[in-house]
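dude i think i finally got it to work??
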Amino acid sequence: MTRNIECHRYLPLMFLAMLALAILACSAPGDADIQSGLATASLDDHSGHNHAPGEHGKVVNATADVQDWCAEHRVPESECTQCNPQLIVQFKASGDWCDGHSVPESHCRLCNPGIVFEQESTLHQAELDFSDDEIEISLFFRPNSGICATDGALIQFASAETAERSGITVTRTIASERKAIIEAPAEIVFDETREIVVTSSVSALVARWLIAAGDEVSAGDPMAMLQSPEMAHLEASLLSAQADYRVSEQEFARHESMREKELISAADFERQLALTEQTRADFNSAQGLLLSAGMSRIDVDELLSSKNISSQFTLRAPSDGLVVERIAQLGQLLDAGSAFAMIADPSSMWIEAKLTEQQLSHVTVGQSLTFASDGRGLDRVGGQIIWVSRFLDPHSRTGTVRAEVIDSQHGLQASGFGRVSIGIPDGLDVVLVPKGAVQWEGCCNVVFVKESIDRYRPRKIRFGAGAGPYYQVTSGLKPGEDVVVGGSFLLKTELKKTSLGTGCCGLEPTS
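look at this
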């Protein structure tokens, strides 16, 4: 009973606070509206920020026409005088300056509430065009309080004109299917189908390395100087085969001339033709043995031209890629077929996650996932599952799920660890709301629903597992409702004022 009395004691104070707020908004037009929290455009969800050019949030997946956009101050980046104060002189010189609000007249939304930049229309459309990859693992959300000052609260502007000058923007909520989230540890590895082992078909040792691990190479680039006791024999065999082939060709030309004059029989001509074909095959075979040993076509041609036989030769890269590892040690004689180095394609990466048996039953090839690296904070990279293991590790009792990284500009490093999140539809309906619309007002997660142009009502909401550009809301909102995005922090500030310092949780449930 005592607790009930304490709760009712604050109700008159709350009523007086709401009345004072309405009086303050109506007290004086013009500059007075600027001082009011509900009328000022400077008190937005970025108030208090102080950043240098380029430090504010970037637009993700933006097209070329919205790259020049300052998300902090809602003006083009190239014209933002708050990020680039040196531009103030230019605007003042051209007569485009609002002294009352210290911004260019062409940017002042208080004097010109109808200002709309081209980028804003594009960004609004981009918010509505989303894919499943944009709904990711959510951060931790604190639970709402059962009863608090938000219940039944209403924010009323002094007039429709004041509401228009506040700079508040709204967007419509979207219906979707809820996705449960599977989380698992994962590792980044190179695409095994694009890895190449650099070998030689002869026994050889590395006399000198010409590259280091981490270097990028192109096909034909020299990688090492090798020495082989077999190389001199192969080179000599090539030169011998070349000489035999040249003699055979000349002899064939002579037989062909004689055959035309019917000086030799057809059988003699066919025997010479077969001999010429055999010497040609021996010559090509000798070249192939040198190419498989590690020489390039240029090296073979130079040998045929110079006739210089040596046991030392250059090992060249068979394809473009990144040198992942130098396997052979200097001076170590390796058998034929031994690996000297490993080359991988840095543009093609796999994400390998370890899932439990129960988790594996919900995953199929073609599903999307996101990977968050342990060393990259909240940055995430998208992937598409290309293989699901059909067996479990006997020790960890987990199975491997492999996904291909779909972002060519991922910047990931092989052997990097992190976690994957995989969205699994569970058949339940949710409402998607932009992240910028959600505010924590002290004890509850709220959004502000537009009831009319000058009236906004705070609404408690509950989250499911999901984030990215959108949060999945399981209760508190309906599809198609208009919620405040730009200016939601301003409305939160006004909502907090109504508590008169008692705190949102000052009212407790009756007993």
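Confidence is low (pLDDT under 50) at residues 1-17, 19-64, 126-140, 500-511.
im so relieved honestly
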